[in-house]
Amino acid sequence: MLCYYNIFRNSLKKERQTHPLSMRTQLRKVDPENPAPEIIAEAANLLRNGELVAFPTETVYGLGANALDEQAVRKIFQAKGRPASNPLIVHVATIQAAQELAETWPKIAQTLADAFWPGSLTLVVPRPDRIPDIVTANGSTVAIRIPSHPVALALLLAADVPVAAPSANRSNHLSPTQAEHVWNDLQGKVDLILDAGPCPGGLESTVLDVTTNPPRLLRPGLVSPAEIEGLIGSLLQMDKVNPENPESQPRRSPGMMSKHYAPQAVLECTQDDGWQRVEDLAAKGHKVGWLTWTNSPEQTHSTVEKVTMPINAKDYSARLYATLHDLDAMGVQRIVVALPPQSEEWLAVRDRLRRASG
Ligand code: TXA
Ligand code: MG
Predict the structure, then answer these.
(1) Which of 16, 91, 230, 332 has its CA 20 to 30 A from that of 72?
(2) Tens of pLDDT, residues 182-212
(3) Which ligand 1 atom is at minimum distance from the Cα of 165?
(4) Which run of H or of E encompasses 337?
(5) What are the pocket residues of ligand 1 if the criterion is a CB atom closer than 6 Å to any ligand atom?
């Protein structure tokens, strides 16, 4: 259906022709399970020397820099065009390294780290002075996680420094779940991209603030509130404070304040299967992408790109961003998404779709 690889190849060729003077971004293929030690060593050296390396995690690709090197971290903000007010997640390889990065280590952090690390849970804990202000956006807390992707873990162990890494996309663009997505957004701005194929999770980590009692869910992600509550009891979930009036809610993660996680095309969600809306937009001459579950109708308007999505939340999450990236690359102007059910397993997907639709 989608010949993304060719689009990627062509853009690569074009970029080399049109921007001969931009920084040369190297792209290295690595085995996702057993990355070659010499490639990992090369990437680790770049990080230790203050350069930027994009690497796969089990959620999305990250844009990494040595978290203790202020100048290196500054390059992340420049490459992404990210506002200085939005703090970064610091990635480490061991719980001990995480503890050393925290001013204090709440008991609840230890319980959660034992249960979910390595994995897609980010913990917000009190921050010590030795972490540069730029990482935490001058805040009193720092966000930390141990990723479970073998390439990320190998890189963190070899680098032997904490690695600050936001998603490897330009600010306000979609997070990348494949190396091609990183290339298209950040070529010429990052020294090395490690290409280990698609990220298995496909959505960003769950962010949980454990400096408050009860802990606050700042961003839903692949670890569900039910899994966390099963261990530590009730969480404060922002959207449950007053779902009708988001403005009345306490401040959440700085990165969650504005429109985020959006494709280039205008995205809208429908309560039904979306077909009527798709027909209306196509009739007006728009090229439309349509994410739905229905198999019917077999035949759609010639300007409609229909994508039949997986019916379980895990598989849907893994495919969502890649599908939106593909539709953008095909030049669709509008994207219509049939909203998934309201049950908790779909919380993170619905959250991202809501943000993508602004
Ligand atoms: O899955 C992920 O979390 C990926 C991979 C690369 O680890 N990273 C990622 O980073 O999504 P980023 O920067 O795109 O999103 C991090 C989120 C932002 O919403 C940011 O505001 C929030 O975490 N955050 C970071 N530090 C924080 C802190 N100290 N307090 C509250 N929120 C924080
Ligand atoms: Mg991001």
Answers:
(1) 16
(2) 999 999 999 999 999 999 999 999 999 999 9
(3) 6
(4) strand 334-338
(5) 57, 59-60, 62, 86-89, 120, 122, 124, 136, 139, 141-143, 147, 165-167, 204-205, 207, 218-219, 253-256
